[in-house]
Specification:
single chain, 449 residues, 15 helices, 12 strands, 40% helix, 18% strand
Length: 449
């Protein structure tokens, strides 16, 4: 199984200023004006849409795509199927076996990868501009006619099984698995994304082909392209890569679900010097009108690194842990505020008590005006750092599309954060943390718990 590719592409902070949307661009000639790094909506002759940021200073092309349907689409008893599909799609395609396919990629320095998260199936491609025809052909083959041959399948299966077995003794993995299965019992989110030993051993070629056929389609396809290509050139390339995919997906409905296990403390004994703590409580989805406010609020609580309340109270004032953080988990079918830390076993109960007290205080009082202003300044000022490389640009454009936000979100995002008022964050803090009953999972030998 190939590791996730670390893409290093050229880009500068200055280009963010020009990431403003232009009017929709068709794949036909539009007059030859160089649009620079501005975001353009391109529609191919076959009707496939992509967001393009044209950069001509390097002969490199980066393409990212995603579609609805990730590990939540795994069939019952076959958890890990989507993960296996993603791992197998560059292990031979069409008339090219795994070795030949890999050699074609290496000969042209083409990078192709695939991944499955809980809600989405995604992929990416990076190539020199001169090799984009070859890269497009290989990506099209991987998307539409993966081979799923027996030999690479067993190799990938053994690699996945080895990873699962390693995870069964790793505190962070144990805590994560138990947290999700307790929070969402009987729901697809409660299954282990990579699967279990039993489920992965049971996955067949037919399972892989079935999930591939149900999920990979043009219906929910989102595409972002960054690099040295014109709108006129991109349109046919989109059709070449994605045009042969089915028009409609056949997804299994993933029902909205409320988080379970609130108020529970689950302890998994493990002979390690530190206790790993995972915690969570209900949050908001991306469609919730309070999402932006919750995003700002979480930065103040535990998402802001050294400046966050949890960091200050847990590490700086008491020295209980090296790090502690919280985050917004905005899934398609559920929303949570999650967090975690690792601490000495004899101080685990104290660490959890401090975290709980901070959530209660946040719910009762909300942030201060100074905390809100500092959070806004950081979140607005650091926005540009998310667009330093071509793959960062493409990935962020994909995320914006998946969240159902318009191309003008690039212009609106900072204004939305600036508009969050102290009354807003106090109201949402009360909504989220007035009753801070959390699901807590601790792995280790925590004393007093």
């Amino acid at each position: 199984m190939r590791p996730a590719l670390a893409w290093l592409a050229a880009g500068t902070l200055a280009m963010l200023a020009s990431l403003s949307p232009t009017p929709p661009a068709q794949a036909q000639p539009q007059g030859g004006r160089d649009q620079g790094s501005r975001v353009q909506r391109v529609t191919s002759p076959g009707g496939i849409e992509a967001w393009l940021v044209r950069q001509t200073h390097l002969p490199v092309l980066a393409l990212s795509f995603a579609m609805k349907g990730g590990t939540a689409q795994d069939p019952q008893g076959r958890a890990g199927t989507a993960n296996m599909v993603a791992a197998m799609m560059d292990e031979g395609a069409g008339d090219l076996d795994a070795e030949t396919f890999s050699a074609r990629l290496q000969d042209r320095a083409i990078e192709i990868s695939f991944a499955a998260s809980r809600d989405t199936f995604s992929g990416s491609m990076r190539t020199l501009t001169d090799n984009r025809a070859e890269a497009a052909a290989l990506l099209r083959m991987a998307l539409t006619v993966p081979r799923f041959d027996a030999a690479p399948l067993e190799r990938i299966r053994q690699a996945v099984l080895a990873s699962i077995r390693r995870g069964s003794t790793t505190p962070g993995t144990i805590a994560s698995d138990l947290f999700w299965s307790t929070a969402f019992p009987g729901h697809p989110y409660g299954r282990r994304s990579a699967g279990t030993v039993d489920s992965v051993e049971a996955i067949t070629v037919e399972d892989l082909r079935d999930l591939h056929g149900r999920v990979l389609a043009r219906e929910h396809l989102k595409v972002a392209v960054v690099g040295d290509i014109t709108t006129e050139e991109l349109g046919p390339l989109l059709d070449e890569i994605f045009g042969a995919l089915p028009a409609k997906a056949r997804l299994t409905a993933v029902p909205s679900v409320a988080m379970a296990g609130l108020g529970e403390r689950r302890v998994v004994p493990l002979d390690v010097p530190q206790a790993t703590i995972s915690f969570g409580l209900p949050g908001v989805t991306r469609e919730d009108p309070d999402f932006i406010t919750a995003f700002v609020l979480n930065h103040i609580l535990g998402g802001g690194g050294f400046s966050s309340r949890l960091y200050q109270e847990v590490r700086e004032k008491r020295g209980l842990a090296y790090s502690v953080s919280s985050g917004i988990a905005a899934l398609d079918a559920a929303g949570m505020v999650t967090g975690g830390t690792s601490t000495r076993n004899d101080r685990a109960a104290e660490s959890l008590a401090v975290i709980t007290a901070e959530l209660k205080r946040m719910g009762a009082e909300g942030p201060t005006a100074i905390e809100l202003e500092q959070a806004k300044r950081y979140l607005i000022g650091s926005w540009a750092l998310r667009f330093e490389t071509s793959i960062q640009i493409a990935s962020n454009l994909i995320r914006i599309q998946l969240d159902g936000l318009g191309i003008d979100y690039l212009d609106q995002r900072n204004a939305l954060i600036e508009a969050v008022s102290l009354d807003d964050v106090k109201r949402v803090a009360k909504r989220l943390f007035a009753d801070p009953r959390m699901l807590v999972v601790v792995v280790g030998k925590p004393e007093g718990m």
